[in-house]
Design brief:
heterodimer; A: 373 residues; alpha/beta; seven-stranded mixed beta sheet; three-stranded antiparallel beta sheet; B: 575 residues; alpha+beta; eleven-stranded mixed beta sheet; elongated
């Protein structure tokens, strides 16, 4: 009897922990904001986070990947269709099954804010939308070149920390997220999360205000730096995570100390309601789905009858189809240009003719009218 | 294989139904599947030592997308494209993504031509009321399906050709107001476009010829083009009923020197880093053709001939649906070795070039050269040019000359551009005299764009899409005019109406022009300079007006001060 009750309590505790995070789906918005070949490392950063997030279970339909330039099929890339994160071409983070939702010139501040707030034109396809609800945990990762209070998009525009904070507030007001993890890997990255004021946001940055984030290692065959230090060590940390691991956020805060990163990574948890020690990495990087087990049987309805195709079209239609002539020379030569519809003369022409008539009659007098009409 | 599985489940259902609920109706016969899938790969060694591989996957489906009840049961035809066809009332859709430029003089004619970048042309059904709005929505949906930035297609790069791009499928009515054509010459092709393209195939990339499509090898080539073509075709030679045809084509040219080899020796493994192990189980035919016309000493088991691009070619055929093709090792890898011919390659009959002439950033000239290499026959070509609005063409300078003399086109259609609204459209039907070069020149002026219209890298330049040259070229052998299903796919893409000539479409190079680019840091410089000038000027003026000046005695020196102190003590006036 005693054994039975103690098992009961443990069961209840385990069940309560399982439901404590409160989210039902996961989304990720991964943005690389830099253009040009020498910013290869920013694309590699974003793709390595994409790879980890996909590996831990978030499907492509729940990932919005924005890459501002194409490095894999760039003509300068000695190994086309690959983006490497480790030197000596050890790890190809581009892979074979990648779906980039926004690429090239589409990665702009406006599109990024529209994706976050959901205010997109009605014809935008589903893969380009962030269709999150109030039970979604969203991971937002930004990388590129930044400064104190801004992040540069494609060398032509910037997004400021105030705009970003306002966008997150819009998301909160519209109930577009349950919890949000914001990671940024740029120079002076901590300035970007200073202005957040919406609840349930946890933020990490690769460097403090006044510090530069440094790149990790160049590859001599490719000729550019492959990754930034913070994301490199974060990738190594995430490679050890599997969908069922219980590692929490405090371990993520310890990634890349000053000895490895040269800059001081920072984090901000005051807006987050739960204790970071109880937040699992897989709450944001993985896609944990709740499964309800039921013991009841469910009755399936009758199978749908196959629609009867109309078989009688062949007999009724006697017309024979034929292919169009690809270059009907005589038809083309005799193709008359379309006659423009006749429009009544517009105001200017009418005014001009009125003026001419007035001047004529003023000079020559009204008695000449009978000669005209 | 699939049919057998279906009948098994129906029998099982019948058994269960028989025991529990005798009054429910069970379909007694399984409906015959009306869709068919064929795949083929043609490998042609080229004269320059490169090798050309052309994949074609065709799905035929006898259904009606335009009826009121939506089609809901898809088997081989991909559902995403079927929904696009029925939602946007598409009659024909052709979309291609290409990396690289097809070098006609070195490689001959391709089976399926395509321009660099992305190209989309669509014929809509007569029932569409607002073609432009439907076109805009269609481009957005396709950009989501193919992961490409096709949403940049808008009215500034869409044209409505008046005589080119006649429908390749069935149809008697050709009202060009239902046709739209657009190109994006800057669009890149990479794995993210190949992945959704492969997912449209019935077997995906798991079985059949599609296992060879690995991105690391395909994009390491001189030319890579993948396309999707949807149209209606005849079901049989009588052509009383139609069916929908979906063709997915992929053309690649692998470079001899780029891949690091010296001998003209290629194998499937060297080209694709894979070998073939089985045909796609859903395919009714799966064939591999190797072009051996230039190397007739090859003796292999199965040979066949086909007339393609005006020439009769001999092919060695491997049928992948037969188990014997794969042998005991259960995989097929072919080695192709050929010697370079001492003689010249047969020159293609029609070939074109285009370039920009001139200097400076104000004016320029576009030259298009079309070569007719036939010794005694002349034939007509239809030239379609779509130039963006920021290159202002001076059409009064348009000149068409052949062999030094003026050659007046028999049909000219010109639609002038409107700034920021639509591009120039120039279509001309020109008769090319035999063995000649025809040059079309037109002068243009470059416009200055507004600040926000410049892309983030404006010094790269701005692209002008390829010109399209459509022509009926006389052929050396009689072409087949009836379309039967037994013909190999690569010879049945363009419909053929007469035996003496075949239709060919050529794309010229896209142009890259530099527009006068402002210095984007100037506003910052101007603000700093203006503020400094205003501060200095206003400050000085303010000081002059409001300050009053008093004369102040200079400070006396130390000796004088001490002397003054002594004099004051003595009571004497100071110095």
């Amino acid at each position: 009897m005693l054994c039975y009750t103690s098992l009961d309590i443990l069961d209840i505790q385990w069940i309560w922990q399982f439901f404590s995070s409160g989210h039902t789906n996961n989304w990720a918005v991964l943005v690389c904001t830099s253009r040009f070949w020498f910013n290869y490392r920013h694309v590699a950063n974003t793709l390595s986070v994409y790879r980890s997030v996909k590996r831990l279970g978030i499907p492509d339909s729940h990932i919005v990947l924005m890459l501002a330039d194409d490095m894999a099929c760039n003509h300068r890339n000695p190994k086309p269709a690959t983006v490497f994160s480790h030197k000596n071409m050890e790890l190809n983070v581009y892979g074979d099954d990648v779906e980039v939702d926004y690429r090239g010139y589409e990665v702009t501040v406006e599109n990024f804010l529209r994706v976050l707030t959901g205010r997109l034109p009605p014809s935008t396809p589903r893969s380009k939308r962030l269709l999150s609800d109030d039970r979604s945990n969203i991971l937002i990762y930004l990388t590129g070149h930044g400064g104190n209070g801004f992040l540069k998009f494609q060398d032509s525009e910037e997004i400021s920390n105030v705009e970003l904070a306002d966008a997150f507030e819009q998301m909160w007001q519209k109930r577009r997220y349950n919890e949000l993890l914001f990671i940024i890997d740029t120079c002076q990255g901590a300035s970007m999360y200073e202005r957040f004021y919406s609840p349930n946001i946890m933020a990490l940055a690769s460097s403090q205000v006044g510090e530069d984030s440094l790149s990790h290692q160049p590859d001599l065959a490719i000729g550019v730096h492959l990754m930034d230090r913070y994301t490199f060590y974060m990738l190594e940390f995430l490679e050890d995570i599997h969908p069922a691991s219980k590692t929490n956020m405090n371990d993520l805060f310890k990634v890349c100390p000053k000895s490895q990163c040269v800059s001081t990574p920072g984090h901000r948890t005051d807006l987050f309601l739960r204790d970071p020690g109880s937040v699992l990495i897989t709450d944001f990087f993985g896609s944990v789905r709740k499964v309800e087990l039921t013991m009841d049987a469910i009755n399936l309805t009758d199978p749908i009858k196959q629609m009867e195709e109309d078989p009688v079209n062949g007999e009724e239609q006697k017309e024979v189809y034929s292919y169009a002539d690809q270059l009907p020379v005589s038809e083309i030569i005799h193709q008359k240009p379309k006659q423009k519809d006749w429009h009544p003369p517009d105001g200017f022409i009418l005014g001009l003719w009125t003026l001419i008539l007035l001047v004529f009659f003023k000079t020559y007098g009204i008695k000449h009218l009978k000669h005209i009409f | 294989c699939v049919c057998a599985c279906m009948s098994a489940t129906v029998d099982a259902a019948a058994d269960i139904q028989g025991t529990s609920a005798p009054e429910t109706v069970v379909p007694s016969s399984v409906p015959q599947p009306k869709d068919d899938f064929q795949e083929e790969l043609v490998i042609r060694p080229l004269h320059s030592g490169d090798i050309y591989a052309s994949f074609q996957f065709r799905t035929l489906w006898d259904t009606d997308f335009m009826r009121e009840n939506k089609v809901s049961h898809y088997r081989l035809f991909p559902k995403s494209l079927g929904q696009v066809i029925s939602k946007f009332s598409v009659r024909e859709l052709h979309i291609s993504f290409t990396q690289g430029y097809w070098r006609t003089m070195q490689w001959g004619q391709p089976f399926i031509p395509s321009p660099p970048g992305a190209e989309l042309w669509v014929w809509f059904q007569d029932s569409v009321t607002d073609v432009d709005a439907t076109w805009k929505e269609l481009t957005n949906v396709l950009s989501g399906i193919f992961c490409a930035s096709l949403n940049f297609i808008d009215s500034t790069n869409t044209v409505q050709p008046s005589a080119s791009f006649k429908p390749l499928g069935l149809g008697n009515v050709t009202d060009h107001s239902f046709l739209r054509y657009a190109t994006l010459p800057r669009e890149i092709v990479c794995t993210e476009n190949l992945t959704p393209w492969k997912k449209l195939l019935p077997c995906g990339s798991k079985a059949g010829l599609a296992v060879l499509l690995k991105s690391e090898k395909l994009f390491h080539s001189s030319f890579h083009s993948q396309a999707v073509h949807i149209r209606s075709v005849c079901q049989d030679w009588q052509c009383k009923t139609t069916s929908w045809e979906l063709r997915q084509t992929l053309n690649s040219v692998f470079d001899l020197h780029n891949s690091g080899q010296t001998k003209r020796e290629w194998s499937l493994f060297k080209m694709f880093s894979r070998t073939l192990t089985e045909a796609c189980p859903l395919a009714s035919s799966s064939k591999l053709y190797i072009d051996i016309t230039d190397n007739p000493q090859v003796t292999t088991s199965l040979l066949s001939q086909a007339v393609v691009l005006g020439d009769r070619r001999t092919f060695s055929v491997y049928d992948l649906t037969q188990e014997t093709t794969f042998g005991t090792v259960r995989s097929l890898n072919l080695l192709i070795r050929w010697k370079s011919n001492e003689g010249e390659m047969l020159r293609p009959l029609l070939h074109a070039e285009r370039y920009v002439a001139g200097y400076g950033l104000q004016t320029g000239e576009i030259h298009t050269l079309m070569y007719n290499n036939h010794p005694y026959r002349s034939f007509p070509v239809l030239l379609l040019d779509s130039v963006p609005w920021y290159l202002r063409l001076y059409i009064h300078t348009l000149s068409v000359t052949s062999k030094g003399k003026d050659n007046k086109p028999s049909y000219i259609h010109y639609e002038p551009s409107k700034d920021r609204v639509k591009p120039h459209l120039l279509e001309m039907l020109i008769q090319l005299p035999p063995n000649s070069v025809t040059e079309v020149t037109v002068q243009f002026e470059r416009a200055l764009l507004k600040w926000t219209e410049y892309p983030p890298d404006p010094n790269h330049g701005f692209y002008v899409g390829s010109s399209v040259i459509s022509s009926l070229v006389p052929s050396t052998v009689a072409m087949h005019t009836n379309s039967t299903r037994e013909r190999p796919l690569f010879s049945s893409f363009f419909p053929c109406k007469e035996e003496s000539s075949y239709f060919v479409r050529i794309y010229t190079e896209p142009l890259l022009v530099n527009l006068p680019t402002p210095d984007f840091s100037m506003p910052y410089n101007v603000i700093c300079l203006t503020c400094t000038v205003v501060a200095v000027g206003y400050g000085s003026l303010y000081n002059l007006l409001t300050r009053s000046f008093q004369i102040e005695e200079p400070n006396p020196g130390l000796a004088k001060r001490i002397a003054n102190v002594i004099r004051r003590m003595r009571g004497v006036p100071p110095l």
